[in-house]
Specification:
Number of strands: 3
Number of helices: 9
Structural class: mainly alpha
Radius of gyration: 20 Å
Distance between the termini: 27 Å
Helix content: over 70%
Mean pLDDT: 90
Oligomer: single chain
C-alpha cells in the first residue's frame, strides 16, 4: 500500500516477513557468536584437574561477559519483537533505521570479548557501555519513527510514548554514567548497569493507561 508518497508494506507481505526474518536471524547469530569468542583453554598437562580448574577460573570474566551480553541482547530481541508485533506495516525509513540498529546488535560480540579479556581496563568497559547506550537509544528511534509515520496498528497516546521512551532510555543513562566510574573501578561501573532493573520495576508500576500495547 501507499501512504502519501511513501511505500508501506503491510504485515501480510513478503517484504514484511523478510525484514522480520532477517532481524531474528541476525539476533540469533549475534547471540551465538558470544560463546564462540570464549575459547576452550589449552593445557600443558591434559590430565591435570588442578590445571584445568585454574584455566577455567581465568575464563570467569569471559563467562560473565557472555551471560551479561546474552541477557542484554535477549532483552533487545524481546523489545524488537514487541515493537514489530504492533506494526501495521513497514516503509523504507523504518527498514533503514532497523538496519542501523541491527548493525550495532551484530557488533555486540566484539565489546563483549573485549570486556572478557580486559575486564580491569576502563576502555574495555567504556566500549561496552557506549555500544549498549547506542543500541538502547536506537530502540527509541525505531519506536518513535514508527509512531510518527503512522506505522503502528494500535493507538499509542503521547503519554504512553513518553513512558516507553523513558523505559528504553534508562539503560542509556546507566551506561553513560558508568563511563567516568570505570576509571575509578571497573567492577563498580559494570554493577551500575544493573540499576535499570529496579528502575524498570518502578516505571512498570507507574505505567499510564494503555501502556500494555508496548509490553
Amino acid at each position: 500500500m501507499v501512504r502519501g508518497s511513501a511505500r508501506v508494506w503491510g504485515r501480510d507481505t513478503v517484504e514484511f516477513g523478510r525484514v522480520t526474518g532477517f532481524s531474528d536471524g541476525l539476533f540469533a547469530i549475534a547471540m551465538t557468536l558470544l560463546i564462540v569468542e570464549v575459547a576452550v583453554p589449552r593445557m600443558i598437562h591434559t590430565g591435570s584437574s588442578r590445571e584445568l580448574l585454574d584455566r577455567l577460573e581465568e575464563l570467569v570474566p569471559e563467562f560473565a561477559g557472555f551471560f551479561l551480553s546474552f541477557a542484554l541482547i535477549g532483552r533487545y530481541w524481546v523489545a524488537h519483537h514487541q515493537m514489530f508485533s504492533v506494526l501495521r506495516g513497514i516503509d523504507y525509513g523504518l527498514i533503514s533505521r532497523n538496519l542501523v540498529y541491527l548493525a550495532f546488535i551484530a557488533f555486540m560480540p566484539f565489546p563483549t570479548a573485549l570486556l572478557g579479556d580486559y575486564f580491569d581496563n576502563p576502555l574495555a568497559v567504556i566500549a561496552y557501555a557506549v555500544t549498549g547506550a547506542i543500541v538502547s537509544a536506537l530502540e527509541v528511534v525505531l519506536l518513535r519513527y514508527a509512531w510518527k509515520a503512522n506505522l503502528l496498528r494500535v493507538k499509542v497516546t503521547p503519554e504512553v510514548m513518553r513512558w516507553g521512551s523513558i523505559m528504553s532510555l534508562s539503560p542509556v543513562v546507566a551506561f553513560l554514567i558508568s563511563i567516568p566510574v570505570a576509571f575509578v573501578s571497573t567492577p563498580l561501573a559494570v554493577l551500575m548497569w544493573l540499576i535499570t532493573v529496579p528502575f524498570g520495576i518502578y516505571m512498570h508500576r507507574r505505567a499510564p493507561a494503555g501502556a500494555d500495547v508496548l509490553e
